[in-house]
Amino acid sequence: MSQPVFLHYDQKALDDAYDQSVYAPNRDQVLARRERNSELARRRLGEAQRFAYGESANERLDVYRTLAPQAPVNVFIHGGAWRAGRARDYAAAAELFVDAGAHYVVLDFDDIDAAGGSLFVMAQQVRRAVAWVHKNAARFGGDPERLYVSGTSSGAHLGGVVAITDWRKDYELPRDTIKGYTLCSGMYDLRGPRLSKRSAYVKFTDEMEAELSPQRHLERIGAPLTLLYGSQESPEFKRQSEEFAAALKAAGKAVELILAQGYNHFELQETLASPYGAMGRAVLEQMGLRPGQSP
Questions:
Q1: Against a cut of 0.85, is the pTM above it?
Q2: Which residues of 78-189 form beta strands (DSSP E)?
Q3: Rounded CA gap, 175 and 171, in Å?
Q4: Within 13 Å, how many C-alpha atoms sit on residue 21's CB side?
Q5: For the chain, which domains are there?
Q6: Tens of pLDDT, residues 176-201
Q7: Residues near 47 by Cβ (< 8 Å), separated by ≥ 6?
């Protein structure tokens, strides 16, 4: 038997635990369905308003507007193993927010290759994007005092990084800039990913692992978090959510942990598009919204 490289995992088991295709054999089918559903949502709602939050080509965001005045805003950070994904491919959930009376903002940012292997670049981009939304919400009818963040997979990791941001020090914004986070199937401590085959494309350093592991900075977290994971996730994605939730609870933070029975990593992300799905219901409840609330 091979020697463990992390916890009880040998190298192959750890690599498999951070490779979603091993635990979700229908991955390609679900991703194709997501793109098709996003295309259909854009047809029904119209194309998103496109704004720049920075100077580089990837520093853009899509806004799907609701009709409700001074509406709350949900900023979504997509996943893709830090390597893939575009904002327009995550339009499927727009109808849930628009119909419930909220604006839905989807971020574009560099993938890890464009970022030169550095998660610091990606983290800084999503933080700046969220700050831009707070400062510019009035441009699309949003209420900056009701700003929420959601994310899935590696986007949930980046959402966790947003949650440990010092808004006052770094962006001259209120400490409670974000009112809540709904994070699905994320990674909240980077030790496991660093020792896995993901280190082939992420240039992990000790500083990156320490600074961008949200679980190690619980004292910085002020807003409530809802964490979701599926019963058919890989063992590492189960552990990441369970241990982060336990650490938050032990630190006296507001946290809810939701186990979605019967869902794998990609199937669970799809539920954001349904007000009666696990993630869709959770995010609407956190925002205090109901399906069909928009005028």
A1: yes
A2: 103-107, 142-152, 180-184
A3: 10
A4: 6
A5: 11-71+80-175+185-223+246-287 (3.40.50.1820)
A6: 999 999 999 999 999 999 999 999 99
A7: none
